[in-house]
Design a protein that fits this description.
By secondary structure, the chain is mainly alpha-helical. Helix content is 43%, strand content 8%. Strand 3 and strand 4 form a beta hairpin.
Length: 158
C-alpha cells in the first residue's frame, strides 16, 4: 500500500478526541492559546515520516489493517515527538519508560509493563504510549507464527 495516500485529515478524524489540533479554533477573533500541546499539521506529517520507517506492511495484510496500524504508529510517534520537544535541549537524548508506580499524598497508582515487552529493546519503545500499545496488540500475534518442517533433500530426486 502506498502510505502517502493516508492523509492528515484521516489522522485528525481518527484521533479527534485524543489531540487538540490547530484547526479546532476556527474563529480568527479568538486567540490561539500558547500551548505546546496543540498539534499542527507539520507535527502529524513528521510523525507519518517516523512511522513509515517503522511500519512493516507485510505483517498487517489488507489496506484497512495497514491504515489502522499506520495511524496508531503515527500517533505513538507524535506523542514521543511532542514529549521530546517539551523537554527541548534538556531532554538529554534519553527516553523514559513507563512509570511502574507513583503516589501523591495518600493516593498511589501502580502498574507493571510485562517483562516480555520491557526486556525487549524493540518492543519496549512501544510500551511508552497507549497508541504504541494498541499497535503492539495488532502486530504481536503476527510476530509469533507456526513453523512447519518439509521433508526434502538438497539434490533433485533421480
Amino acid at each position: 500500500m502506498d502510505l502517502s495516500t493516508i492523509t492528515v485529515a484521516q489522522f485528525k478524524a481518527r484521533f479527534y478526541r485524543d489531540f487538540t489540533f490547530s484547526n479546532q479554533n476556527p474563529d480568527p477573533e479568538q486567540p490561539v492559546p500558547d500551548n505546546s500541546d496543540i498539534i499542527q499539521d507539520i507535527d502529524i506529517e513528521n510523525a507519518f515520516s517516523d512511522a513509515g520507517v517503522l511500519l512493516n506492511q507485510a505483517l498487517l495484510g489488507d489496506d484497512n489493517t495497514i491504515t489502522n496500524g499506520y495511524l496508531y504508529l503515527s500517533a505513538h510517534c507524535l506523542c514521543l515527538n511532542i514529549k521530546a520537544s517539551d523537554a527541548g535541549v534538556n531532554s538529554g537524548g534519553t527516553g523514559a519508560f513507563p512509570v511502574a508506580g507513583r503516589s501523591v499524598g495518600s493516593v498511589s497508582e501502580t502498574y507493571q509493563v510485562p517483562d516480555a515487552y520491557k526486556d525487549d529493546p524493540i518492543l519496549a519503545q512501544y510500551a511508552q504510549t497507549a497508541y504504541g500499545q494498541k499497535y503492539l496488540a495488532m502486530v504481536l500475534p503476527l510476530l509469533r507464527g507456526n513453523m512447519a518442517f518439509v521433508l526434502g533433500g538438497a539434490l533433485p530426486a533421480r
